[in-house]
Amino acid sequence: MSHGAADPTMHPEVQLSTSKGYFLGFAISAFLMLVATFLVTSHSVPPFGLLMVISVCAGIAVIAQIYFLLHIDISEHNIWNTVALVLFIPLFLITIGLTWWMFSQLYLRTMDMSVMSSVTNPAVHASAAPKMSDMPGMGSSPDSAN
Amino acid sequence: MLVDLPGGWSPLLGRLAWSQIPYANPILAPLFVAVVIGAIILLGLITYYGKWTYLWKEWLTTVDHKKLGVMYIIIGLVMLFRGFIDGLMIRTQQVWAVGPHSTGVFGSLHGYLTPFHFGQVYSAHGLIMILLAATPLLVGFMNIIVPIQVGARDMAYPYLNALGLWITAAAAALIMISLFVGDFAHNGWFEYAPIFELQYSPGVGVDYWIWTLQLVALGTTLGGINILATVIKMRAPGMTWGKLPIFVWASLSANVIALTSFPALQVALALVAADRYLGAHFFTAGMGGNLMLYTNLFWIWGHPEVYFVILPAFGMMSEIFPTFSEKPLFGYITMVLASMAIAGVSWLVWLHHFFTMGAGPYVNTAFSVATMLVGIPTGVKVFNWAFTMYRGRLTFNAAMLWAIGALFLLLIGGMTGMMLAIPAINYMVHNSVFVVAHFHSMLLVIVYAIFGSVLYWFPKVFGFKLDEFWAKTMFWLFSAGTALVFVPMYMLGFMGMTRRLEYVFNTSWQSYLDVMELGIVVYTLSVLAFFILLYVSIRDHAKNRVGADAWGTSRSLEWMTHSPVPFYNFAVLPHVNERDELAWRRQHGIDQVRPAHYDDIHMPNNTGVAIIMGGLTFVLGFALTWRIWWLCIVSLLAIILLMIIRSFKGDPGYIITGAELQRMEEEAYRREAQIADSHHSHPVSGGVVGNAMAYQRNDSSK
Question: What is the CATH number of domain B51-545?
Fold first, then answer.
């Protein structure tokens, strides 16, 4: 150990933290959250734009939290924080990526895609939904089944 | 209110009402009376013997990692017993309710448990065994052993450690109180969407489940952070990564998993809570929700959690085998790599819990292959243990028997796991008791390793050995019970018996169920043997006292300090020269050295904040379950306030002077000298013997 264990406030990790930094991190995240909540509840932005704005807000919030609350930078004495962050990246990719893959495969097999489109565009639903008899393997009458 | 709440609700008591107390239930009402009487007797005894001050000062406010670990283990054992009783109830219901002609009592058509009650029993059994028995037991052992094995005086964050314990205790209390106030979830320990939604499970059972699990997750995450920080920052001088004891490596890999996976569970639970409390639609079948997303999110945590509990068990086995084979562990590096590989692969396999979802051949194949990959590092471990024992000087004492038992069960569980990893087989046996038998084999590996560790490390913590005869009796009874319960279960699984049946329709399965009931009776005898073991060992403790190295063949750092371990662990921190430090010192004839000079040391103060905080989290969980909003706000504010106050106050700790330390150490050495088979140590000056450094150097240059 490069530093004394006796006084915990002397640890470099503790030395990094300032109340100003914490308040700033908290204020930024709270502000961004309020903005996002307002945009969602007021429906003032079209869906795609909303997604973009919220994503940007989330991205800024993540960076603010990483910097101000978690004190992650690439300096020498913060090596373990950096290690934790780097180890997190593959986990992030695995969980999001594999989930996306398995559910896209699941939807290929189980979802009636026209129903999906009807969620965003209700007008499509009535005309585009295939009848059961149109699907492969679903004969319109019992006789046609061999 | 945001959701359509069935039943009554009052601002003062939320959903709580007298009708929620099951006083008419023929099983719960007598149990409740027994529990109340037992509690009164216990509290009365503590008062009568005037032990409240002792209890408060020495245990309830302690930040000593060993005492916290012991309390974790006590919670784990109590919950293991509760979970076992649930298991006994499940077996008895199934052996009773076979076929249409089976009788029924207590309002049940068949057997003695109504379907709703039976559902609660198996749900509680699963949740308790995994999260409130296995997890606290393992966390307890990691708490006790890791700091001593790395040569530290306490955890990196002693107060956080106490907080983790009391939050876990709050979770245990919450699930226990669900027995007598309201009811517990009846949909299985991992729940299913959308049956846990409010309209399908209108009672408080699922709410109890949410907050119990949420509290366990919180407590375990805090514990995980602590152990990681301890291993990374608090190692004794000289202990490089390559010299880390193997149990520490196992704990490290396990807690990396805990730290990264538990948040996924907490998010899943928070979303379930949003559905039930705020009327959200994350896991409903419509309104943009997707019920399989719940299963997905749950098992993203759930599978890593499985390895979170098995890796410390592997670590325990890796400590027991070398000690009683009198050989160093075979393949240390590969063992470490295997632990890390298992931890890594644990993140890639979660879909195998729901192969039958229908994600298709590509997805299923990928996850099948990933699952089979787990077999490689695990196989490495099995061979390493076998080669450790190969041509070793084996001692078949009780701890070793448990470890060997774990090894055999690991083979059975592992092989059946490989079968289940094949999607085609999985489709056949999905949701059958074959799966149940498989994961019980695996969880029993953990139980075997835990009992082995109880025997192995008990003398370290308490200063005397447990009775060998009763320990072995318990082992053989337990193993007989395991065989009798789980061999027929595997067979019934192949015959197509599905899990969680409160009524068994196929009368030809009766004889198998009979054998399983016999097995659970034998298990009960082993529990009895455990109680006798404790009684006999405590009665004869004066005869079984041990010195620092209880087994005489131990290898790692924890056996270099006194037994029982003094609260400061090491008077002078040892300097680590080799991987198996004690074995190395024994070989070089310096295992009996002791420091000639003692410096002042710095220790953390006790604090009552942690237990109060634990109590408040229990109140918060209870209030959330019953939707008593004012109580939620009050307890949450109290928690936050207390946390802020504590943060500003901090803990300066206190100093034990060198002279005081010397007095305590000499007393400990005197006590050790009275034990017949202990050796006598002699002081060395300057902490250096020959060319080897025995103790931390306290040079002014440092």
Answer: 1.20.210.10
